[in-house]
Write a structure and sequence with these properties.
Distance between the termini: 20 Å
CATH architecture of the largest domain: Orthogonal Bundle
Shape: globular
Number of strands: 11
CATH topology of the largest domain: Transferase(Phosphotransferase), domain 1
Strand content: 15-25%
Helix content: 25-40%
CATH superfamily of the largest domain: Transferase(Phosphotransferase) domain 1
Number of helices: 10
Number of domains: 2
Length: 299
């Protein structure tokens, strides 16, 4: 979703009211779900309401209900400002819904498309905020599996919230790693780590790879790997060396560029071993050469 605040009028067969919520406007329509701006009648507050599309085949509707349930598991019991908050998972007249915090910020991808010049002074805070959001998610025991610019909302003062936990998985314990079954490939190709492409085991380091690809795009204006063919794109993630961030964005420091490159190592063992380690290293480096953050180039 490019912006929660850009809403159209309600134009679906979904009921105008769901539980204690009045649907005000359709904000975004994806392949599986719709996102609504809604009013919580009991608490008189604006919320975001996610519902499965009503034109899906029954098996796909069931899958979307499972995704809503997973988002509720992940986002339903925290107080962090870095993660979107879920308020309620409910059902009304056969329609499942997830009520969430309303956050009318554009996502990071929207800023990248427009050129991040307006955010240049806040880029260090955005980079750190996005990283801290991933650290907090991991500290709660979850792997996101779809870290990308579209899944970070960014405020005008550089505030950051991580969203969309539909694909999240519990961090694997020892037995889960020992008796792991091959995983289905899910996620977004432009940010997918090699082990996810191969259906291998995933952990914090997998999200770190995706985060590094996201930060690379935020700073340079383009993902690290691009291709016209999906298989060629996956092949680059598997085999091609990460391009130089310094070459595409001379304002960054060598130390920051190296940190991003480290997190994009093909072998998880060669990356930082946790998002916390990556975050601690990030806090100790200057991201931009003195006085040059405002000179970052757009896409």
């Amino acid at each position: 979703m490019s912006q929660w605040g850009s809403a159209a009028i309600v134009n679906s067969t979904t009921p105008a009211n769901l539980g204690p919520y009045r649907l005000l406007a359709l904000v975004h329509e994806g392949r599986g779900c719709r996102l609504w701006k809604a009013l919580d009648l009991a608490r008189q507050r604006t919320v975001a309401l996610k519902t499965p599309r009503d034109d899906l085949e029954p098996w796909r509707r069931k899958s979307q209900r499972a995704y809503l349930r997973r988002e509720w598991e992940v986002a339903g019991d925290h107080t962090s400002e870095r993660l979107i908050k879920a308020y309620e998972l409910g059902q009304d007249r056969g329609v499942w819904y997830l009520a969430m915090e309303w956050c009318p910020w554009p996502n990071m991808k929207a800023y990248i498309r427009q050129g991040v010049g307006s955010l240049a002074a806040d880029l260090p805070a955005i980079v750190l905020g996005a990283t801290e959001a991933v650290v907090l998610l991991h500290a709660r025991g979850w792997i996101h599996r779809d870290i990308k610019p579209e899944n970070f909302l960014v405020g005008q003062q550089g505030q950051v919230k991580l969203i969309d936990f539909a694909l999240a998985l519990r961090k694997p314990g020892f037995l889960a790693r020992l008796f792991r079954l091959p995983a289905k490939r899910k996620g977004t190709r432009s940010y997918m780590p090699p082990e996810q492409i191969r259906g291998g085991p995933l952990d914090e380091r997998s999200d770190l790879y995706s985060l590094a690809c996201t930060l690379y795009e935020l700073i340079s204006g383009s993902p690290p790997f691009v291709a016209s063919d999906p298989n060629e794109l996956l092949s680059k993630h598997l085999r091609a060396a990460p391009p130089s961030l310094e070459a595409t964005q001379p304002a960054v420091t060598p130390e920051f560029a190296q940190l991003v490159r480290w997190a994009m190592a093909k072998d998880p063992a060669a990356r930082p071993q946790s998002s916390w380690e990556f975050c601690q290293r990030l806090r100790r480096v200057s991201m931009f050469r003195t006085g040059q953050a405002s000179q970052t180039k757009g896409p």
